[in-house]
Design goal:
Elements: E1 2-6, E2 12-16, E3 28-36, H1 39-45, E4 56-57, E5 61-69, E6 81-84, E7 87-88, H2 94-97, H3 111-118, E8 124-125, E9 142-145, E10 153-154, H4 161-164, H5 170-179, E11 188-192, H6 196-207, E12 212-217, H7 220-228, E13 233-236, H8 242-249, E14 257-260, H9 271-281, H10 290-298, E15 304-307, H11 320-325, E16 329-332, H12 337-349, E17 361-364, H13 368-377, E18 385-388
Parallel strand pairs: 11-12, 11-14, 12-13, 14-15, 15-16, 17-18
Antiparallel strand pairs: 1-2, 1-4, 3-5, 3-9, 3-18, 5-6, 6-10, 7-8
The chain binds nicotinamide-adenine-dinucleotide (NAD) and zinc ion (2 copies).
The site of one zinc ion has 6 residues, from loops.
Length: about 400
């Protein structure tokens, strides 16, 4: 089959790889009909995530048709149309029972690698390094889906691939970012990053009762989509001092809750930006946490800082003093996607949201290298690339 493979920093290549096979009784093989490129894939593309190997099949946002099933998968049938969640989770361990699916204790065969970095291992993730399981991803014609009896959900025929594909990741992720804030009526929420995750965090904050959402980015086209399609007010961090602007917009108190939808590759024009660039280049820091620092310092005392942007390692100049002295709550996580798929599918079916509003580019799987380049450079007003195998 054809698959998009990682070959080093800023190099991906669509090539022939062996077809996936059923290895375990709870596996399914999916013929992929739609797949997408995620902001998290950019961290692999830009060489920020260790333990990638040349030839690894990328991709963790995908859906398609069941073509083969292991003997223990009783809830699906060959021919079913399903969306697959990006965290691989067994459904039965202590973490899965708590619905903390991205912490599944049974899905990362390379847990020892992750333990070195994080203390304990999170779940395995499709196409996301050997430290997180070394699973082949879904930017391909077919994928093997472990624990297929608990992960994938069937989707109704009257909804298109584009309407349901993002249940695999970014819609639940944005939603969890907002949910972790425990928003109360009248609250103001600030969202750093108007990428796909930020767009869904904005929409979800409104769904959960926020009165105002203020979104921060520097790309005018992304800010325009945040205003016109997600309903946010926007501010550009290259034009204004974000802390001052937010303070002024919120009666001197700061936003009630702040969501970081930027993650480890935060961009900053100022002195702190130069500091992070030097330190990451010298391998003295792994991430560039500009947005996170700002979110913490800008948040109202007693508010919540919700981090769905992905950080990989160890951060510098982390304002822990602000968290302690101003009673801030810090919450984070890789999304527990399985927990949100059905309720969010219901919202799509009810017409409350059509997640396809983020799609700007539709390409063939063979064009994945171009797609990665456009999305990474934010060129051609690229917000979200969907690939068709
Ligand atoms: P993206 O690259 O399209 O979006 C990031 C946005 O942040 C860009 O628009 C960029 O201009 C903006 N940005 C950069 N520096 C900024 C700053 N200092 N202030 C404000 N905005 C800034 O990516 P995406 O697909 O939207 O993903 C965003 C993050 O969410 C990534 O880190 C990704 O890994 C993460 N993610 C997490 C999960 C999860 O489960 N927690 C799931 C999916 C994605
Ligand atoms: Zn993702
Ligand atoms: Zn589990």
């Amino acid at each position: 089959m054809r698959a998009n493979c990682w070959h080093g920093t800023k190099t991906v290549q669509v090539q022939d790889v062996p077809d996936p096979k059923i290895l375990n009784a709870r596996d399914a093989i999916i013929r992929i009909t739609s797949t997408a490129i995620c902001g998290s894939d950019l961290h692999l593309y830009n060489g920020f995530i260790p333990t990638m190997k040349r030839g690894d099949v990328l991709g963790h946002e995908f859906m398609g048709e069941v073509v083969e099933l292991g003997s223990a998968v009783k809830n699906l049938q060959v021919g079913d149309r399903v969306v697959v969640p990006f965290p691989i989770a067994c459904g039965h361990c202590a973490q899965c029972e708590r619905e903390m699916y991205s912490l599944c204790e049974n899905s990362n065969p390379n847990a020892w690698m992750a333990e070195k970095m994080y203390g304990y291992s999170p779940c395995g993730i499709f196409g996301y390094s050997h430290m997180l399981g070394g699973y082949a991803g879904g930017q391909a014609e077919y994928a093997r889906v472990p624990f297929a009896d608990v992960g994938p959900i069937k989707v109704p025929d009257n909804l298109s691939d584009e309407q349901v594909l993002f249940l695999s990741d970014i819609f639940p992720t944005g939603y969890m970012g907002a949910e972790m804030c425990n928003i109360e009526p009248g609250d103001t929420v600030a969202v750093w990053g108007c990428g796909p995750v930020g767009q869904f965090a904005i929409r979800s904050a409104y769904m959960l009762g926020a009165e105002r959402v203020i979104a921060i980015d520097r790309f005018p086209y992304r800010m325009r989509i945040a205003r016109e399609r997600a309903g946010a007010e926007t501010i550009n961090y290259e034009e204004v001092d974000i802390y001052e602007a937010l303070r002024e917009m919120t009666g001197g108190r700061g936003p009630d809750h702040c969501i970081d939808a930027v993650g480890m590759e935060g961009h900053s024009p100022g002195v702190m930006g130069a500091y992070d660039r030097v330190k990451t280049t010298m391998m003295m820091e792994t991430d560039r946490p500009v947005a996170l620092r700002q979110a913490i310092l800008s948040c109202r005392s007693g508010g919540t800082v919700s981090v769905v942007g992905v950080y990989g390692g160890f951060l510098d100049k982390f304002p822990m003093g602000a968290i302690v002295n101003r009673s801030l709550t810090l919450r984070s996580g890789q999304c527990h996607v399985q927990r949100y798929m059905r309720p969010l599918l219901k919202r799509i079916e009810d017409g409350e949201i059509d997640p396809s509003f983020v799609i700007t580019h539709r390409m063939r799987l063979d064009e994945a290298p171009q797609g990665f380049n456009l999305f990474n450079q934010k060129q051609d007003e690229c917000l979200k690339v969907v690939l068709k195998p």
